[in-house]
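Hi everyone, sorry if this is the wrong subforum. Our group has a chain we'd like a structural model of before ordering constructs, and none of us has done structure prediction before. Sequence below.
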Amino acid sequence: MKTAAELLPGTLDLIVLRTLVRGPMHGYGIAQRVKEISKDVLHVGESSLYPALQRLLLDGYVKAEWGASENNRRARFYTLTAAGRRQLASEREEFERIVGAIHAVLRFA
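Answer:
Right subforum, don't worry. Here is the predicted structure as tokens:
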């Protein structure tokens, strides 16, 4: 089972940004959504998720507001910014380029 620490460098930011395209989410919700979408293959732990969210906040790719979660607990909700959308497009393009190159090597090596 892959964890965030085993993802390709930079992929966690890409995954978090992509997850937030659907709308504001709190950290636990992001982790659960990634687990669900990946069919339980990717597990993003708190020790890697929250530093990534903080980095994305500092870079201006997400913004955060305090609110109440589904179970009425105080939670910080993260929202993708316009800069975050541009960064997502850029990172996604680069990731697809790298994956294509890896596929090419695996097919012809």
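For your construct planning: The first helix runs from residue 11 to 19. DSSP finds four helices and five strands in the chain.
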